[in-house]
């Protein structure tokens, strides 16, 4: 059914951004290009460079139970899932989009900088949303990046986030 849509945009929160990156990497490895109607992507609070919180808690039983194997793969070591996926595949030369609309694959990232957890923020060491640092949301090849004053969990529910998402999906920019 996605082939019938005029444009296929993705809006993700947290690990959802890693899922889209994983899907694109698997498509690339299989030699399958993204759908012809692939549009823009907005990632909200993605741990694109991993999360020090996930790294610190990876062997803590309640964390293991709650997040499962995938939560433990979000650390900051070189073999963590986010760090093995590489840059955004639509960057610069757009090799996977030859002959397509130049707006296809544009990536907007929204980060939060308000934490509700001082312990996690101490582990993160920098402006953060309580789960990931603002710096770790960046991804080589991103089109635009915006920081909003909300926490990780609540960022996805805020009106200014919704406005930013809609603006990016329409224009490829946050301003």
Defining key terms:
single chain, alpha/beta, 8 helices
List strands and helices in order, with pairings.
Layout: E1 8-13, H1 15-29, E2 38-44, H2 52-57, H3 61-72, H4 81-84, E3 107-112, H5 118-124, H6 134-137, E4 144-148, H7 152-155, H8 159-171
Parallel strand pairs: 1-2, 2-3, 3-4
What does this structure look like?
With 175 residues, this protein is an alpha/beta fold. It is 37% helix and 14% strand. It is globular. The chain has helices spanning 15-29, 52-57, 61-72, 81-84, 118-124, 134-137, 152-155, 159-171; strands at 8-13, 38-44, 107-112, 144-148. Strand 1, helix 1 (15-29) and strand 2 form a beta-alpha-beta unit. It has one domain (2-171): Rossmann fold (3-Layer(aba) Sandwich), CATH 3.40.50. Strands 1-2-3-4 form a four-stranded parallel β-sheet, sandwiched between helices. It is built from eight helices and four strands; from the N terminus they run βαβαααβααβαα.
